[in-house]
Amino acid sequence: MDDWLDAAMQVLMSDGVGAIKISRLCDRLGVTKGSFYWHFTDISALMTALSDHCRGIEEAARRTLANLQELPPVERIQSMGELVSNTRRRSVEAAVRAWAETDPELQAAVVALDHTTFDVAQDAFVELGFSPLDAHARATALVYVGIGYMQGGERVEAPTEDDKRIFVEMLIRR
């Protein structure tokens, strides 16, 4: 079953949810449709399993962010940037976010991840001594830059190490 979910995830990332078809997945895996029906009753069953898988990915990302709370605030902010700039993570997250526009359960998972991201960032800025108002603004900027970067995909050049360093310096500068 994992092979089917991996193949479906690859199609989701490359061509979107509408491109996930039984025949396409069979071709990708080099198997017959009978193999598909051994694992799933129909395409809806696969899509339900894939949606569950994607919600699991979002929940794992939330746990990863929550674990960053143990780091000093500047390291926490830098680590958040590293998470979002991971090429694989960025591709997965962009695909999940695009699908979430039409899947309410998946959208709830994305919103929960965004709230966790914001909370972790805001806590870091408060710990750095910023007022609640300033911490809120900086956390908002960090979250939206991350979302924009993920949605930009290959259209926008990946940030360099200098870009990331300068962005963090801008956020923590008084």
From TrEMBL:
Where does the HTH tetR-type domain lie? Answer: 1-58
Kindly list the residue ranges recorded as spanning the membrane.
Answer: none
GO molecular function list:
DNA-binding transcription factor activity; transcription cis-regulatory region binding
DNA-binding region positions on the chain: 21-40
| Keyword S-adenosyl-L-methionine applies | no
Q: Which InterPro entries match?
A: Homeodomain-like_sf, HTH-type_TetR-like_transc_reg, HTH_TetR
Keyword Transcription found = yes
Q: Which UniProt keywords apply?
A: DNA-binding, Transcription, Transcription regulation
Its name, as the record gives it, is TetR/AcrR family transcriptional regulator
